[in-house]
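Our preliminary data section would be incomplete without showing what the modeling component actually yields. Below, a chain of 303 amino acids is followed by its predicted structure, encoded as tokens that our downstream tools consume directly.
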Amino acid sequence: AITKDLGLDKPKWQQFIWYINDLSPLSFYKKESKKVELAGGVNLIKAGNTVVKIKWPYLRTSFRTKQAVSGMIVSAFAGTLVLAFSAIILALLIGVPLGVLAARRQNSWLDNTLVGISTIGISMPSFFSAMLIAWLFGFVWKQYTGLSMTGSLWEIDALGEGRSLAWKNLILPTIALGIRPLAVFVQLTRNTMVDVLQMDYVRTARAKGLKERSVIWKHAFPNAMNPLITSVGGWFSSLLAGAFFTEYIFNWKGLGKVTIEALQQSDLPVIMGTVLFTACLFFVVNILTEILYFWIDPRLRYE
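Predicted structure:
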């Protein structure tokens, strides 16, 4: 009875068509179907036994909790967005200055050290770095750091009557998630700046007697930003979609944790909903990156 109610007794091609119908803004349902109410929206046409609706994409309900998948995604996405944004900001604030420093000291011991460490950071799997950081700073050195191995952005009090922001719970997962993009930004900034610093206009700026700081940050760095912007956009998308292991290890309430729990429990609507939402995120972030790239680089506007 449950299998029939969920439509899992139908052929795969029919299940696929029904799912596309649920996602479509213009959908067709039978009057007696529960989805007429669950999908929301506005009834456009009622013809015989068929109802035509205009609505937002309907991601169905969870097999396990019976909650709307769209509501579960919205409530979990805030945690993922905060975590991804914090990680990308951390990576930029540390990675870019280190990359510039390595470029200025090209082929020195400092340059070689930074490149070597960043190579290790790029090679380190996110789940390994998350487990290592959680164990060291959240367990072994907890008496010094005061940080916990697990926790979310919001903490519920003992009586369950209220909640409060727990920013300290953001520190360890942010570091774990930000290691790889930080390492990438170090090498990308370093390699781009090495090329830019050899340009004629940089030599001219130095010949005019400008301070080295002005030459680096006002003349060289703005012309080295384009590859960095592209990389930031790609990494931000990856962090939004790829925080699964980090969220699960730190018990951080986000899309990744929701998806892994759904996979463990074979909750198909939640799995399909989160995967579809993540794919849309990649598309939106890439479009915004292209717009930002066009706005920052005046050469593209004149072509």
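The chain has a mean pLDDT of 86. The chain is about 65% helix and 5% strand. Preliminary results of this kind motivate Aim 1 of the renewal.
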